[in-house]
Amino acid sequence: MSLRRLLIANRGEIAIRVVRACREMGIESVAVYSDADAEAPHVFAADRAVRIGPPAPADSYLSIPAVIDAARSTGSDAVHPGYGFLSENASFARACEEAGLVFVGPPADVIERMGSKIAARALMEAAQVPVVPGTVPADQSDAGVVAAARTIGYPVLVKASAGGGGKGMRVVRDDRSAPESIQAARREASAAFGDGTLYVERLIQRPRHVEIQVFGDAHGAVVHLFERECSIQRRHQKVVEESPSPGLSPAVRRAMGEAAVAAARAAGYRNAGTIEFLLEGEGDAARFYFLEMNTRLQVEHPVTEAVAGVDLVRAQLTVAAGGALPWTQDELSQRGHAIECRVYAEDPENGFLPQAGPLLLYREPQGPGIRVDSGVREGATVSVNYDPLLAKLTVTAESREAAIARARAALRSFPVLGIRTNIPFLIRLLDHEEVRAGRLQTGLIDQHLDELTARRETPAEAIAAAAVTRLRQHFDGQAQLHGGESPSGLVDPWTAIREWGR
Q1: Which residue has better confidence, 64 or 495?
Q2: Residue 485: what pLDDT?
Q3: For residues 87-108, average pLDDT
Q4: Over the range 200-236, which residues count as b (16 or more CB within 10 Å of their CB) and which as e?
């Protein structure tokens, strides 16, 4: 079969990314939007656009009936969920199937199976994929969970079965702190996922977080597209990703790839997915353990596209239409080094508080080896209703050292005025000696938080540029009102802040 019209059940940069793939493949694209996104770039990028509700995600992007109705009303024959929102919702995948729509992702039963940490763990054990030593207490009372923790040996992680992102997760180091931590984890899990079931596993000290991109089709083929190092995190949310991982030896890389393919086969997986591992130790002696599976395209997929030379979204659409994978395992290889930095509207100096407001100035860096995926534009207003991700900066170079240098230079050429962003924080992070040396682990940011977020004065150049930008907007508005032209001779704001990041 061939896809004729695709509805993108998402917003922002991922919606624009899917639109670009559709355009290349001759597929008509349909965007959806809430009232808060009526003027958003993804609305104008697509061939058609449909309003699906008010700003609150529950009434728009998370509303399965609204999205299905939009697909039907536009005559769409397929739906791409992007990531976040409904992307890992088995009920949504099933609703698409029942409506006669192709869901660009795995089957609903696979999403369901791999979305449960308990079910996924059991499946991995049966497939002989290494898992973190742990147990699912048959007795889910506080006393039962404490007994399980004693059996495994402190310190342990008590984790929610039904979700991820660090919600419903607590470190327990001894009997004394166990009851309070268990109750907190259960409350948080119930609130976030509607399921308070917990499981207990050994706490891996100073782990790396390394994930493997996998891809399967309906004809029995499954491949991996190597790893992404995702250890630089804050509160279990990734900040910087790269490939190849500086922590993998060739032998461990090979073994991890084979384990990821075995995991995908065991799950009966189709389309793009990711197997996440925790890595303990160094060199050939390092050991890895299955963490979870993400049954969707990842935010950081450009890293894999850069080093493997592939188009993952195009492959998603091909496989969803019933086609075969466009590559075999032997045809895939890593070339060069790629790093992705997530640019957020947030204030690292104030507890990473999300920011909202108008983008008075927004200029993306350009140049060889620089890619920016974004869903905003200069003059737009960043909403309080959605994730504060503004853009993803991905750089590629011949070596890790060169990629870090290119990323730092690109970030310094990425001026944003009107709201605070984490760009200065990212520059400091890439400058940090531990990052430069490749000594990465999931607690790195927390351990060096004070030096990475130390308050600094706003550069005079940035203040001047903001004033010039506001003045220009005022004169432009007046000129439009009177049918004339804007005054000449104003300083280009970009000139004023060229070196703002230094």
Answers
A1: 64
A2: 54
A3: 98
A4: bbbbbeebbbbbbbbbbbeeeebbbbbbbbbbbbbee
User: Tokens in use for 166?
Assistant: 């660090």
Neighbours of 474 (CB within 10 A): 11
Topology given in CATH for the domain delimited by 5-104? Rossmann fold (3.40.50)
Q: Are 404 and 493 in contact (CB under 8 A)?
A: no
Name the residue with tokens 């609305």: 43
Query: What tokens were used for 41?
Result: 């770039």
Phi and psi (nearest 5°) for 83? -135, 160
Q: Is the dihedral of CA 64, 70, 76, 81 positive or negative?
A: negative
Give per-residue pLDDT as tens, 313-369.
Answer: 999 999 999 999 999 999 999 999 999 999 999 999 999 999 999 999 999 999 999
Distance between CA atoms of 141 and 340, rounded to whole angstroms? Answer: 42
The Cα–Cα gap between 287 and 202 comes to: 14
How many CB atoms within 10 Å of residue 445? 21
In the chain, where the domains are located:
5-104, 133-202, 204-335, 338-431, 460-496
Question: Are the C-beta atoms of 90 and 274 separated by less than 8 Å?
Answer: no
Cβ 450 vs Cβ 348: under 8 Å: no
Q: Is the pTM of this model over 0.85?
A: yes
Place of tokens 């609903």: 108
Share of the chain above pLDDT 90, in %: 83
Q: Are 59 and 67 in contact (CB under 8 A)?
A: no
Pick 133-202's CATH classification: 3.40.50.2000, 2.60.40.150, 3.30.1490.20, 3.20.20.70.
Answer: 3.30.1490.20
| Amino acid at residue number 199 | Y
Among 465, 265, 466, 428, residue whose Cα is nearest residue 349: 428
